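My convention is simple: the sequence line spells out the residues, with the fold written below as integer tokens. I include a record here:
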Amino acid sequence: MPDLPAPPSSRPPAWLRLRALHLEPVLIATTWALGLAGLNRLNVMPGVLSGLGLSVWMVYALDRLLDDHAKARHDGLTTGAFLRSPAPFLRLTGLVLGALITGWLAIFIVPESILWSGMFLSAAIFLYLGIFAGHGSQVFFRGVLPLLGSGAAGFILKSPISDGVRYCLAGLILTLLFLLMSRPFQQRLRSSLHKDVAGGILFAMGVTTWTRFIRDGTDPVGGFVEFSLLTCLFIANLTGISSPSAHHRWLAAGAGVAFSAWLLADKGNLALSMKTLAASCATGFLLLWLLDRFRPHLSRDTYRLLADLAVLLPALPLVWKHF
């Protein structure tokens, strides 16, 4: 007798099934990057938004893939059997295609300065994944990381910078590689860092890459304020489910940074655009705080969706300025 289809009530909602595609972080990152460009009256060159979106999607997909692989191995499933499963196979295929497209954009489309920024950010992301994803798989620390680090050190030694800087950077990378291969150092690093804090910092670094490139060091204070506001907003979003106590602290810290930035811009000590950005981020902090009041009445997935909307909506008026 054939199996009867599951009743509609037992299936997850369509919006929940779409979350498995990791599109929310892509939408948030590209919208805020476009909003920052609109705030500063800048046109985003081709390849920047698509490269950012693909990079964000790949990080989230790889994070999920490594976590699922760790759970599968804990349940006794071999790596080959795991990768032959539909969802992991599709994620892996998407990662390969995404890496090829991102590489093409980096080499042939975006400026060399953004390429260098992306390489340093990629190194930080790989370190983040190695520490937190897949429960700290030793395959990454003993296999992938040494290959990546050795390649990075060799690339730096061939780069057109002074000999002293080249040797110092290469030596620093090799020393860090040696330390990261030690399990006690890995555990100490994992316990001293919070995954959501590290993730929020990296997310903000990716979103502000284009405006950092345009500023080219001409407004370091404004760039730091911009980065600080978005870092607090993204960390407050990420800690919403995992750590309510940390969530409240980051909401308070973000509100303080937003008020200080608005006050400085109002007195003429920062660009007027920082006043608008501070108000937009303050709106995000307020929405997250109001959402937290209704947390007991919401499911985990519903809260996550609304928290993403609370971070996305304040960027839309800035995007309007771009057009």
